[in-house]
Amino acid sequence: MVRTRLHVVLAAVVVALLAGCGGGGEPAGGAAPPEARALNVFAAASLTDAFTALKAKFETDHPGVEVRLNFAGSSDLAQQIVNGAPADVFAAANESTMKTVTDAGQAAGGPTLFATNVLQIVTPPGNPKGVASFADLARPDVTVVVCAPQVPCGSATEKIERATGVTLSPVSEESDVKSVLGKVSTGNADAGLVYVTDVRSAGGSVEGVEFPEADTAVNNYPITALTGGREPELARSFVELVTGEFGKKTLEDAGFGTP
Predict the structure, then answer these.
(1) CB–CB of 39/67 below 8 Å?
(2) How many angstroms separate the CA atoms of 20 and 38, rounded?
(3) How far apart are CA 226 and CA 230, in angstroms?
(4) Rounded Cα–Cα distance for residues 86 and 32 (Å)
(5) Phi and psi angles of residue 42, each rounded to the nearest 5 degrees, phi first
(6) Record's CDD domains (predicted)?
(7) Residue 187 DSSP symbol
(8) What is the pLDDT of residues 77-106, one digit of tens each?
(9) Domains and CATH numbers, the chain
C-alpha cells in the first residue's frame, strides 16, 4: 500500500514537471508563437523579379510576416490606392504616377527614389525583322506593341517619339511591360518597347536591341509607405530594405540603375 501511494505521488510530480516545461505544446518558457501579419506591397510590374527576391529576405528577417506583392501597371495601382485598396507600400515606375498618390494625401512622408530604368527594343529570338533602331519600329512591315500612354513605360515611349520625331503606329497598347513582353515572346508582334530589366529577366525567350535615344526618357522609381496601411512599422522597414545596401544590390543584379 505504501509503495502504491509513493508511485502515485511520484507520477503526479512528473506530470507537474512536464507541464511546467511546456509539455502542453507551447514553446519553452511559455512564449506564444509570433502572430501572423501581412504586409501589402503594391509595385510596378517591372519590379517583379527584384521585389520577389526582397520579399524572401524580408520574411526571413521578420518571422511571422507575409509580404503580399501586387504587381501591375503603376497607374492602375495608384488608382487602386486612391480608391481605398488595402496597401502598405507603393513603388511606382515614375514620379508622375506617384504624384497621384501623394496629391491624395496617401503617402506617409516624402517618396524616396530608389532605382532608374530605361527602355529597350525587344524582339523574338533571332530578330526576324532585323530591327536595329528606334526608327525601324515605324517601318510598315514591323508590327509593334507598346505600353498605353498613361503607364510609365508608355509615357517614356512618347517622350522618345517626341525627341526623335519618329511616330509609331502600334497594333496594341498594353497595360504594363509584362504584357508587351508576352506579346513579343509568343510571336504575336515583331517588336515592342519594354525596360532593360524585362529583357534581362526574359532570358532567351526574347532578344534585346539597345538604342541611344532611350537615354532621353530615363524613368525614376519612387517608393513610399502609405498612410492607409495597417502595418506602418513594417512598411517603413520594407522601404528601408529596398533603399538600403541589400536592396541596392538586388536591384542592380536585376539590371536597374540605383541612386
Answers:
(1) yes
(2) 33
(3) 9
(4) 28
(5) -100, 125
(6) PBP2_ModA_like_1
(7) T
(8) 999 999 999 999 999 999 999 999 999 999
(9) 37-116+220-253 (3.40.190.10), 119-217 (3.40.190.10)
Residue with cell 515606375: 93
Bridge partners of 147, per DSSP, are: 174
> Rounded to an integer, what distance in angstroms lies between the CA atom of residue 198 and that of residue 181?
8
Nearest to 117, CA basis, from 247, 218, 240: 218
Q: Is 13 left (phi over 0), alpha (psi -120 to 50) or beta?
A: alpha
Q: Over pLDDT 90: what percentage of the chain?
A: 85
Dihedral angle over CA of 211, 218, 140, 169, nearest 10: 180
DSSP letter at 227 equals T
Residue-level pLDDT at 34: 55
Alpha carbon separation from 99 to 39, 86, 109, 150 (Å, rounded): 22, 18, 13, 13
Q: What is the pTM of this model?
A: 0.84
Tens digits of per-residue pLDDT, 237-252? Answer: 999 999 999 999 999 9
Splitting the chain (259 residues) into consecutive groups of 10 residues, what average pLDDT does each group show? 42 41 44 74 97 98 98 97 97 97 94 98 97 98 97 97 97 96 97 97 95 97 97 98 98 96
Q: Report phi then psi at 34, rounded to 5.
A: -60, 140
Strand positions, DSSP E, the chain: 37-44, 65-72, 89-91, 112-117, 119-123, 144-147, 172-174, 191-195, 207-209, 219-225
Contact 120, 191 (CB under 8 A): no
